[in-house]
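To the wet lab folks,

You asked to see what we're planning to order before we commit. Fair enough. Below is the target structure as tokens, and below that is the sequence we designed to fit it. If anything looks off to you, flag it before the synthesis order goes out.
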């Protein structure tokens, strides 16, 4: 695994670093929110090991196990699984998933096309916008006021709708513009 990385392209290294950074971000957030501290094995130790393994071998069951741990571990470690930190967790899981998928598809030494990275970046942004909209709905149905009040929530929903409209237009553009 490690010997392959000597011949890795810059894009592959960047994707693998992003996977590890997403797991590190989750671990830091879980340690802070749970109050267990940076030495807790469940909040920090296991995610760090799983993130390292997922970054080294993005194709296979290791990233799936790691992402499953991040998704299932958040409600266990967080006192309020629907807090604003949950939206950050969703973004970190999305980054880890997208980067693992891209890193697994191409050979380690292959340079990834810039258009493909842009395409997946836009796709991930749309998914994150949908997650933000879902988070807003969860907050509404919990009868808990969102941070910033109703005006900020309305602005967030309008931004999500604008992002979805832009994505729809981008997908439907004529073939000559692609």
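Sequence we intend to order:
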């Amino acid at each position: 695994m490690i010997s392959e990385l000597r011949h890795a392209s810059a894009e592959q290294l960047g994707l693998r670093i992003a996977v590890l950074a997403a797991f590190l971000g989750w671990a830091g957030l879980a340690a802070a929110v749970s109050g267990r501290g940076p030495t807790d094995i469940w909040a920090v130790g296991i995610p760090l090991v799983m993130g390292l393994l997922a970054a080294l071998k993005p194709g296979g069951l290791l990233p799936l196990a790691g992402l499953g741990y991040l998704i299932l571990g958040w409600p266990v470690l967080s006192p309020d699984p629907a807090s604003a930190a949950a939206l950050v967790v969703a973004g970190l899981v999305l980054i880890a998933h997208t980067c693992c998928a891209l890193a697994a598809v191409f050979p380690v030494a292959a340079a990834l096309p810039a258009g493909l990275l842009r395409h997946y970046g836009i796709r991930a942004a749309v998914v994150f916008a949908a997650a933000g909209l879902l988070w807003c709905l969860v907050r509404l149905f919990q009868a808990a006021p969102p941070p910033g009040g109703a005006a900020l929530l309305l602005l967030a929903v309008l931004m999500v709708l604008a992002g979805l409209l832009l994505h729809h237009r981008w997908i439907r553009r004529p073939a000559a513009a692609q």
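Structural context that might help your review: Residues 1-112 form one domain. The chain has two domains: 1-112, 113-178.

Thanks,
Computational group
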